[in-house]
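Final report, Chapter 2: Outcomes

The project's central promise was a pipeline that accepts a single protein chain and returns its three-dimensional structure in a standardized token representation, suitable for archiving and comparison. That pipeline is now operational. To close this chapter, we reproduce one record exactly as it appears in the project archive, with the input sequence first and the structure output second.
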Amino acid sequence: MRYLVDTDYLIDATGGIPSAVQTLQRLSDQGVAVSIISYGEIFEGAYGFADPKTLLAAYQEFLGDYPTLPLSGPIMATFARTRYFLRRMGQLIPDLDLLIAATALAHGLTLVTRNIRHFARIPDLALYPARG
């Protein structure tokens, strides 16, 4: 496994946005995983629709194509260490984003995201697309 996909790409892919679908297809051969945190973020969005049950089933089916990485002790340690660092620097990002980043760091994965603005603050986090 080489990549962890952030929620933004997953939402775009489930919405059929060609660039997101093509990126996930291209990277799948190298191994793509999803954080359990992204499940919560995606599922939350379903509740804003008239028929969340159908949408939740579609999301579940889509996410079933990828291994799911749960939270663990090492991930939480990475989260705490990184959150402390970002707080000291005055550069905190939302906790859910930080948990996704900590998952990527703990597993040595490159994070596939469009949210470079937040994730570029995290030392040693490899990003796709690469930060410039």
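Archive annotation: The two ends are 24 Å apart (CA to CA).
This record, like all others produced under the grant, will remain available to the consortium after the project formally closes.
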